[in-house]
Specification:
Structural class: alpha+beta
Order of helices and strands: HEEEEEE
Mean pLDDT: 79
Radius of gyration: 29 Å
Strand content: 15-25%
Number of helices: 1
Number of domains: 1
Distance between the termini: 110 Å
Length: 155
């Protein structure tokens, strides 16, 4: 009886290792792209939340009936019913959550409203004030702080 050798058509270990390396590079690239995309989305969400809080501060400032217009030191306002509370930074830390409430578990936005008499700010309109509302928060990447601000002129 003669033994016949079958044609060995299997893969060698080198071919298998090359395939594993190629698949690993593709999966690694997909992971990095997905992670970068998620960080970008989170940065956009935080910036949008900060802008909403800044706009909220401006709306509260417009409707304020207290002496906030005359404040000479930076302050912030909390979005609490029934009225907004004007809080000086020395009295509170002015951190708010995305809903404008103070000292919540996710309070990460530090808000300030700074007033400048318009003439001192280089504006020639008498009896007007410029308010700069700024939100600062730690960036999701851990590299510094994000910041969003708006300026409002009150006559």
């Amino acid at each position: 009886m003669h033994m016949r050798y079958l044609d060995n058509a299997g893969d060698t270990i080198i071919e298998v290792l090359i395939c594993i390396a190629v698949v690993s590079m593709i999966l690694g690239g997909a992971f990095v792209t997905t992670r970068d995309s998620q960080v970008g989305v989170r940065n956009s969400q935080e910036h949008a939340e900060a802008l909403k809080l800044v706009e909220s501060q401006l709306e509260q400032l417009r409707g304020d009936t207290t002496d906030a217009v005359g404040a000479t030191t930076p302050f912030c306002m909390y979005n609490e019913a029934p009225v907004s509370a004007v809080i000086a930074p020395q009295d509170a830390d002015c951190t708010q959550d995305s809903g404008g409430l103070p000292k919540q578990s996710d309070s990460r936005y530090y808000l300030t409203i700074a007033r400048c008499v318009a003439i001192a700010c280089g504006n020639n309109i008498a009896n007007s004030y410029l308010f700069t509302v700024t939100a600062t928060w730690p960036q999701v990447t851990g590299q510094g702080n994000g910041q969003a601000s708006m300026v409002y002129r009150l006559y």
